[in-house]
Amino acid sequence: MGWWPFGDSQSLDPSPPTRQERQKCWESRDAYFACLDGVGVVKPGTEGKACSAENHIYEKTCAQSWVTYFNERRKLAFQQKGHARSSKCAKRCHEALTELTRETGATYSSPMLNDICTILAL
């Protein structure tokens, strides 16, 4: 296996990928990730046989280091998206409960409001 394992695994050519090879890699990555989205899978490699054809092409056309990088970026992007969504929900919840306590005269501690909002965000 060569230093830069694009395409044929028997190639020993250490040259960087061409523009066309990079484009093929990105297209195969996008097709594989679209398949994962279609079956509701976030973590690449956990989809079973659902996207095996797309995964095979993706791993064949991209360097292993790129595959690892793209897969990690996908997982991280979903984690960040979920965290941002839950943070926004928790903030809105806290504001709504604070307003409710003002209107009703009920007394809740700030930590209690945070706990309620955390539970509701789940």
What is this structure, in a nutshell?
Keywords: Disulfide bond, Mitochondrion. It holds the Pfam family COX6B. The protein has 122 residues and is mainly α.
Question: What does this protein structure show overall?
Answer:
- This protein has 122 residues and is an all-alpha fold.
- It has a domain at 17-62.
- The protein has four helices and no strands.
- Helix 1 (19-39) runs antiparallel to helix 2 and helix 3 packs across helix 4 (110-121).
- Pfam families: COX6B (PF02297).
Largest sheet: none
How many helical stretches?
4
How much is the average pLDDT? Answer: 79
Which structural class do you get from the secondary structure elements? Answer: mainly alpha
Low-confidence stretches: none
Strand proportion, as a percent range, falls in under 5%
What is the count of β-strands?
Answer: 0
What's the SSE pattern? HHHH
Shape: elongated
End-to-end Cα distance: 46 Å
Radius of gyration: 23 Å
- Helical content class: 55-70%
Family: Belongs to the cytochrome c oxidase subunit 6B family.
Subcellular location: Mitochondrion
Region (Disordered): 1-20
GO cellular component, one term: mitochondrion
Outline the secondary-structure elements.
Blueprint: H1 19-39, H2 52-61, H3 64-104, H4 110-121
Helix pairs in contact: 1-2, 3-4
Protein traits:
122 residues, mainly alpha, 0% strand, COX6B-like, disulfide bond
